[in-house]
Amino acid sequence: MTVVRISDDAAALACGAEAVAEAFAAAGCTVERVSSWGMHWLEPLVEIGGIGWGPATPERITEIIAGEADDLCIGPIAAHPFMARQQRLTFARAGLTRPLSLEDYTATGGWRALTRARSLTSEQVIAEVTQSGLRGRGGAGFPAGIKWQTVAGAPGPQKYVVCNADEGDSGTFADRMVMEGDPFQLIEGMAIAAHATGASRGYIYVRSEYPHAIAKLEAAIVLAQGVIAPFRIEVRVGAGAYVCGEETSMLNSIEGKRGEVRAKPPLPALEGLFGQPTVVNNVLTFSAIPHILIEGGAMLYDSHGIARSKGTMPIQLAGNIKHGGLYETAFGITLNELIYDIGGGTASGRPVKAVQVGGPLGAYIPPDQFDLPFDYEAFAAADALIGHGGIVVFDDTADMQKMARFAFDFCAAESCGKCTPCRIGSVRGGELLGRIGDPEAREALDDLLETLQFGSLCALGGFTPYPVRSAMQHWPEDFG
Amino acid sequence: MTREENFAAIFAAHRGREGALLPILHEVQHVFGCVDAEAERGIAHELNLSRAEVHGVVSFYHDFASVPDPRPCVELCRAEACQARGVEALVAAAEEAAGTRVRLKTVYCLGLCSVGPAARVGESLFARLDEAALVSLVRCA
């Protein structure tokens, strides 16, 4: 009987994977629901014996089963140029395993790192994480090993491991893909963190916009309970507040409070969830851990990347791009390669005008800077940020003043209200943009942006100036 | 089940849980379609909080409403990536199709940023929407 593999990832489902899967089942095929390869422009992508067809529709399945439908066939999926050039660690299982199959997970090296970590002392585990050069993938890029060391050394009757899965940035979906496609990997990473820091409880804070991820995680936690015990993990569901992606407001939200930002210090590592020492890392950070804690993993991880940006980054190609999806590679790749060689330029076929990297708080970058390498420090030097690795492409129809205005509107809508620069500055900024032709307004706006950047409590207010300033700087013609 | 029994069941399910307020609010919102003043009082009593504290949390989060909206809801993503893929040009037609019968709610990011414009109706997700597809989605909601 023909075995057909189709993803049950939310992106595949949104593109109609369910109907395609049902049609194959009705035609007598065995349908396996696997994670997504990450080639989203081809979803629903159908795999039979390593060969791919996409985007598939129920009407074409008879041809696909017969090995025809040449216009949809991409040949061997693993050899596809989009796949072959990647260096996949976090997404090594993407497209290959059934997300909730413990058997598939174990057969592909799952739990090896946890078993090994448990044979090591806390100090040894943390030393390997530090040695790997892994930096927090949520956006701030803080060295994971140092954070873990702080928690391990902090006294406290109860320590926590909290996974930030409040992936609210537009243009990002890597967390969602891990949670839906390889949830055990995240759980294993968290269990290793718990062992290293002496934590006994874990929370995964997932945004409510991700019902499929929530369902997969909850099922995976039940299945993995025996493996990770005595460590316990619980999923907590957000409630539609973007700012809860900021770690301290997320902790408040888990505690059942308004998702308002806390002033730092104290650091969450010392006084985090319920006032206890807490490791807070992003989904991708925890998911990198099992690759670091296998024998020789830390050295291998450190060998990828450039300068102080080590390892691989799951880059998300989004917006107006021809070949959008998940592209994991070592740091150092340029935007040119990502947008043109890999992404194929815009989906609309029009020239690229701008890309926004790092979500709604990231800078807009013009094509003449596309030689910028993907590296935390190189981006910072160009007044931009990598953030969570999302790249949103805009074609030449984009109005950058509108995008700058949107940045302020978004900040106003999502501000937690705790600090004045963000709460009021976002509204006033939008008003000033409305009369930007007036030199006085321009001066006031520059002043306001500085206040926002340096006077806000968290990155929401602090980074809103990035998209606004970059839009004004690189596309002055849009600000007439 | 009466309203009181419903609340009693929700409270019993979350008793003793760390930071139980948000899970309770989610369930109340799900069962009753809103978290109204009476619900806030009951939850405050259960968790030994002031009603102001509970109201502060309810009003903070976009997911909780103080009055129910029984209309079908289409959540349309209008964040940057969907904007780059042309969602703004679809909004007028979608609003017209929605009228007062359907609630057209703007959300910022469904995580379908490579295949937008994207929308969600309940648990169902839709991608690569053009005007015709979105209008039909709104009409069928």
List keywords for this structure.
heterodimer; A: 480 residues; Rossmann fold; Ubiquitin-like (UB roll); 5-stranded mixed β-sheet; B: 141 residues; alpha+beta; Glutaredoxin; 2 domains
In short:
With 480 residues, chain A is of the alpha/beta class.
Instruction: Output the helix-strand order of chain B.
Output: HHHHEHHEEEH
Please tell me how large the radius of gyration of chain B is: 18 Å
Mean pLDDT of chain B: 96
List the domain count of chain B as a whole number.
Answer: 2
Strand order of the largest sheet of chain A: 2-1-3-4-5
Largest sheet of chain A: 5 strands, mixed
Question: How much helical structure, as a percent, in the residues of chain A?
Answer: 40-55%
Structural class of chain A: alpha/beta
CATH class of the largest domain in chain A: Alpha Beta
**Helix fraction bin of chain B:** 40-55%
Q: What is the 3D shape of chain B?
A: elongated
Shape label of chain A = globular
What count of helical segments of chain B does DSSP give?
7
CATH architecture of the largest domain in chain A: 3-Layer(aba) Sandwich
Task: Trace the largest sheet of chain B across and list its strands.
Answer: 2-1-3-4
Number of strands of chain B: 4
Number of strands of chain A: 16
